[in-house]
Amino acid sequence: MRIDGERGFVLHRYPYGETSLLVEAFTYAFGRVGLVARGVRRAGKAFAGAHLRPFQPLLLSWSGRGELGTLVRAEAPEGAIELEGNAVWWAFYINELVLRLLHRHEAHADLYVAYDEALRALAASGCREEVLRIFEKRLLAGLGYGLALRRDARSGEPVEPQTDYRYLVDEGPIAGGDGREGLKVKGATLIALAQEAFTDGDQLREAKVLLRGALAVLLGDKPLHTRSLLRSIQARV
Q1: Residue 215 — φ and ψ, nearest 5°?
Q2: Which segment of 30-39, 162-171, 225-234 scores lowest on mean pLDDT?
Q3: CATH homologous superfamily of domain 86-236?
Q4: Where in the chain are the domains?
Q5: CATH superfamily of 2-75
Q6: pLDDT (tens digit, 9 = 90+) per residue, 179-190?
Q7: Mean of the per-residue pLDDT values for the chain?
């Protein structure tokens, strides 16, 4: 099998043997793929190794049918997405989520679009936190674990902005639920997340707790490296 000019991004790369790289890429039509870039670490070998870095939009060509393909060509149709400050770490956090939660060779075209939009929004926005919350929400939906945000899970009534809810990850929001179950969240936050339009910091904080709780079910006990690293850096500032 030969794939030519597939849109993609490098999520991560690792040394592979003495002279090659193993590239984990996220592509539009094929989802996450593992590609061996042979010989790119050899002195004097040009290939397209300079392009094989995160946040660089690429056109990837590869061959092979197994778990790992062989990268044939990597072209950069445009410049790298320029990220600064915390936006760099937040983009690596997004990369780690994709690596951890997407299986190889499962197409997620909508998630690819959401990923591309998130990177460009981080570059353009001066690192707005809502970019992360929106991507986390879209990631859960793309994986089949979308959050119920518009109606009370038990009464079926529309979510009211001034009402306090308890959110059960496997069920949804419940007005006046038992205070010992679920995560406390205001209706206004659920509506803001559904509309992807936050109006204040309280909504962002509640959305962060809610989304992290939902993602934890999928991530399991292994912590995210980027999240721990960012906390460590911020503690030293």
Answers
A1: -70, -30
A2: 225-234
A3: Recombination protein O, C-terminal domain (1.20.1440.120)
A4: 2-75, 86-236
A5: Nucleic acid-binding proteins (2.40.50.140)
A6: 678 899 999 999
A7: 89
Report the alpha-carbon angle 101-104-105, nearest 5. Answer: 130
* Residue 145 to residue 132: CA distance in whole angstroms: 17
Q: Cβ distance 84 to 41 under 8 Å?
A: no
- Going by the DSSP 8-state scheme, the letter that residue 51 receives in this structure is G
Q: Is 120 exposed, middle or buried (0-12, 13-18, 19+ CB in 10 A)?
A: middle
Looking at residue 228, what is its pLDDT? 62
Q: What is the pLDDT of residues 222-232, one digit of tens each?
A: 778 776 666 55
| Buried/exposed 136-151: b ≥16 CB within 10 Å, e otherwise | bbbbbebbeeebbbee
The helix or strand, by DSSP H or E, that contains position 86, with its residue range, turns out to be: helix 86-101
Pairing of strands 20-27, 58-63: unpaired
190-216 per-position pLDDT tens digit: 999 999 999 999 999 999 999 999 999
